[in-house]
C-alpha cells in the first residue's frame, strides 16, 4: 500500500463515469480496458482503497502493473485518456537503407555473370560483393534475399 500512498489516484466524477463507460461499452483494446479498471480500483475519491495485493488479485494483474498505471497517471498530469491509451513512439522508425536505386543496383549485380570460380551467385557471395561496391550500402545476406524475393528474382 506504500506505492498507493506515494502516488494516490483521485478521479473526478466525470473521469470516473468516462472510465466506467470505457470498460463496459464499445470496443476498446484490452490493455486500455485493464488500465481503466486499475484506475477505477485505485481511485481514492470514493473512499478507502483496498491493499494493492487485493486489487491485483481481483483484477488479475501484478502489483507492478498497479504501480506503473499510478505513475503514468501522475506523469500525465491526471489525464485519464493519456493514462489508459497507448504511448506514442518516442523515436521515429529507422529509415530503410534499401532505396529504389539500391534495389536496382543489387538486381543488376545479381543479373551479371558470377565471379570467376563460381557457377552462380549465392546470397553470401552477393553480400561480399556488395561490401566491395562503394555506391551500395553494406547489406546483410538476409536483406539481400528479401529484396530479391520482393522483386521475384531467383538465384539460379
Q: Main sheet, how many strands, which sense, barrel?
A: none
> Any idea what the radius of gyration is?
27 Å
Individual helix count: 9
Sheet/helix structural class: mainly alpha
Unreliable spans are none
Shape: rod-shaped
How many E strands? 0
* Element pattern in H and E: HHHHHHHHH
Q: What does the average pLDDT come to?
A: 89
User: How helix-rich are the residues, as a percent range?
Assistant: 55-70%
The first-to-last residue Cα distance is: 67 Å
Tell me the β content: under 5%
Q: What do you see in this structure?
A:
The chain is mainly alpha-helical and 156 residues long. It has nine helices and no strands. α3 (30-42) packs antiparallel against α4 and α8 crosses α9 (141-150). The longest helix has 13 residues, at 30-42. It starts with a helix and ends in a 6-residue tail after the last helix. The model has no long low-confidence stretch (mean pLDDT 89).
Amino acid at each position: 500500500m506504500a506505492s498507493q500512498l506515494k502516488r494516490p489516484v483521485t478521479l473526478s466524477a466525470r473521469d470516473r463515469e468516462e472510465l466506467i463507460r470505457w470498460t463496459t461499452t464499445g470496443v476498446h483494446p484490452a490493455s486500455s480496458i485493464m488500465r481503466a479498471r486499475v484506475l477505477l480500483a485505485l481511485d481514492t475519491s470514493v473512499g478507502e482503497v483496498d491493499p494493492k495485493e487485493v486489487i491485483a488479485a481481483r483484477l488479475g494483474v501484478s502489483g507492478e502493473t498497479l504501480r506503473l498505471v499510478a505513475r503514468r497517471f501522475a506523469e500525465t498530469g491526471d489525464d485519464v485518456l493519456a493514462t489508459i491509451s497507448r504511448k506514442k513512439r518516442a523515436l521515429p522508425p529507422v529509415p530503410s537503407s534499401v532505396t529504389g536505386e539500391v534495389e536496382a543496383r543489387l538486381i543488376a549485380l545479381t543479373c551479371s555473370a558470377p565471379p570467376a570460380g563460381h557457377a552462380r551467385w549465392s546470397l553470401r557471395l552477393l553480400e561480399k560483393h556488395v561490401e566491395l561496391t562503394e555506391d551500395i550500402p553494406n547489406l546483410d545476406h538476409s536483406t539481400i534475399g528479401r529484396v530479391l524475393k520482393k522483386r521475384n528474382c531467383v538465384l539460379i
